[in-house]
Structure formats: structure tokens, C-alpha cells
Design a protein that fits this description.
The complex is a heterodimer. Chain A is an all-alpha fold. Chain A has six helices and no strands. Chain A has one domain. Chain A starts with a helix and ends with a helix. The relative contact order of chain A is 0.17. Chain B is an alpha+beta fold. Chain B has a domain of 157 residues: Thrombin, subunit H (Beta Barrel), CATH 2.40.10. Chain B has a six-stranded antiparallel beta barrel. In chain B, strand 10 and strand 11 form a beta hairpin. Chain B starts with a helix and ends with a strand. In chain B, 35% of the residues are buried. Classes of the chains: A mainly alpha, B alpha+beta.
Chain lengths: 158, 283
Amino acid sequence: MKRRHRWLVLGALVTAASVINVALSPGLSAYSFRPNLGLCCLIVCSLFTGPNTASALGFWAGLLEASYAATDLGSLIVSRTLAGFGVGILEERIFRDHVLVAVAATFLGTLGAEGCFFLFAPQPHAGAWAIATLNEAFANALLATPVYYGTRWIVHMG
Amino acid sequence: MRSLNEMRQERRRRARRYAGAIVCVLLGATLGVLHDRSSRHSHADPVTSAIRTGTAPFVEGAHSLRRWFGRQVGWIIHGRTLDAEMQRLKAENERLIAENARLREAEITARRLRSQLGFVQQLPPSHVAADVIALFPNPNFRTLIINRGSRAGIRLHSVVVAPQGLVGQVYDVAATTSAVLLLTDAASAVGARVQRPESRAVGVCKGNGSDLLTLAYLPRDADVRLGDTIISSGLGGTEGVYPKGLVIGTVVRVGEDASGAERIVKVKPAVDAYRLEEVYVLK
């Protein structure tokens, strides 16, 4: 696949993941581990592109998530944009094409994005929020492996 | 040593690297401000409204597929007859529980009405039936999305109920969808009353992001017992949205905090959000 068309495919993947997350969210969870498939897919997709495209993907993922959450819109968009940018900029620092990098980036990226969100829009019951975020990060890290291989296959298919 | 020209090029390259992120952050913050402004004036935000309207059919399709798949799996596990029988009995049980609570409330009201002349009984408000198309779309908030919006006459702060009891209130309306804030969300609060005639204690039922509600601001001598049914009191709330007499839930824990200064009463909501498929929005 030509690199200049990659953003379209990554954008479609992020959109599909966000829609699936909205529709199936409780079905995806196990016990208190509830993943955020949209955020997980955003972070993994950002590994396959540079900081600018990753920021745009983050913006789009945040907008989709915020449209359904219908609250704290700006905070959701900005936190997802920064998460995408943070992973995108790794392009110039480390070799990213490895599943372990995807798992680590997803875990840390989720904590970073949700941490940013909390900073911009402080929520009541901070302790419960922190535990939920930690659980979400673990669940996202678990999902990162299949999402990474799926995205890699689609991106390298052409 | 690098030339001045090379340094300028490096600076430009760096600026280009951050340009996308800066534009997206600024745009995101602007959209956030516009959304807040629209919400404050009870208007639908055109951007999120358009996105939700555009993606709702896909979300609804995926949600229906999940439900269908759940039924197929249920059939594999329980067998077709057993599964159908279980569904029927569960529905009947829920209907009877709700009916029982309604009748008890009607009995109490009738007794009070007999003793009060000039009481004006409010007519039950009209309602719109809606399907739940997304549950907890964001793991951090206790919300759900229904497939009816402003076109069906739904407005901001409309009350959402199910046969079992109170679900929550509409807090964002698009043309064909609405977002509902559940009672269990940390931002939710509803004026509550103990239904038992000997008690009738009044407090506020607050969500905290967990599956249970907290009944707060109770008088110190309030008579609250395990198993008490809690109904909406019709009192309080800046929007004054919740009508009187809707079932909120059942008391599952009564205790005191470590200092003994405050009572802790936990209420299990009558409505199990995980199993909600249809709701009614009171207009």
C-alpha cells in the first residue's frame, strides 16, 4: 500500500473500531476489565504513521468517542489527539514495528490519554476513576496484539 | 559546523512536525467550547449531532447483531425451549415487581388523597418508546444511546423510564439519537423517598460510577431498612426533571461511616442497565 494512501485505511480502521466499541462496549468487557477498542486501535494505528497523521487520527477518534459520550467533548478530543501524537512521534525515536512495542505503547498510551482527560476534565471519585483507567489500560494492552497483527496485515496487504 | 541556512531548515522541519498536532488540539478545544455553549442553551451541537446521526445506523446494526448472537449463544447453552421460557418468566417477574410497586404507591397515594381536599392529581405524561442502540459507549461514563431524538419530540432533560423503574435523563439530543445519563453515573442525582408508609423518609439518590446508588442527605432519625423500595420524591434538582413515584431501587445496605456521623445507605437500581433493550422517554 502506498504510504500516502495509508491515512485513509488507518482512518477507516479507527472509525470501524470506534463504532464497534460504541455498539458492543459492555459485551467486550470481562469482570471490571473494560477495554476501549477505539483508543486501542488509535494507538496501534498511530504506530504505522507519523506524528501529523497520528494527531489527525487522534482528533477523529476523539470526536467519534465524544459524539457518543456527549460530554467533555474538548477534553476527549484533545486527550486522544495528544495520545496519537505521542505515539506518532515515536517514529523518529525507536523501531516500532514489533508487537511488544504495540502492547507497551497501548498500555502507556491509554494511561496517558486518560490521564490527560482527567487533567482537563477532573471527574468525581478520583480513586474509582484511577482503578477503572488501570483496568482499561490492561484490557487495551491485551487487545493490542490482535489489533496490531490485524492492522499490520491490512497496511501491508497492498 | 552547521550553516545558518541548515539551522533554519531544521527549525522549519520541526515546526512542520508539530503543526498537525497543534491544529488538531486547537480545533478540538474550539469544538469543545462550542459544544458546551450549545448544551448550556439546550441546543443540539451540529457537529456531534451530524456524526451521531451518520454513524447511528452502523451502531444500531452492530448492536442488533450482538443481541442476535447473544440469543443464539443462549439457545446453545439452555436449549431453545428453556431459553424462551426463561425469557418469558423473567419478563413476567419484572412486570409483576413493577406492578406491585405501582399498586403500593397507588394505595399510599389514595389514602393520602382521601385525607387531603383540593389535591390535584397530575396526569401521567405522554411518552415515546425507544430502542437502546449503545450501552456505555465510553467506559468512563454511565450513559446509553437511544434511537430517538429531537425529531421524535425528545428534549434535553426528558426523563427515561423502563417497566422496572427509573433509568435516567436525556442529556444530549441529536436529530435521530439521544444520549441518556443513567442514575448510576457519578454526575446523576435524584430526589428520593422511602416508599414504606411508616417511613416516607426523604433523601437524594446519587450515582458514583458503580452499580449501586448512594442514598444521601437522610435525616439522622430516618427509618430505612434493608429491602425498602426507594421511589423518586419529585423534589429538588436544578432542572426538577424527575416526576414523583417512579421506582429507583431497593435498599441493599444500611450502615454508618467510620466516624458514625453519617449514615450510608446503598440502593440497588431497579433497572439493570446491562439488560436494557427498550426504554420510554417521558415528554
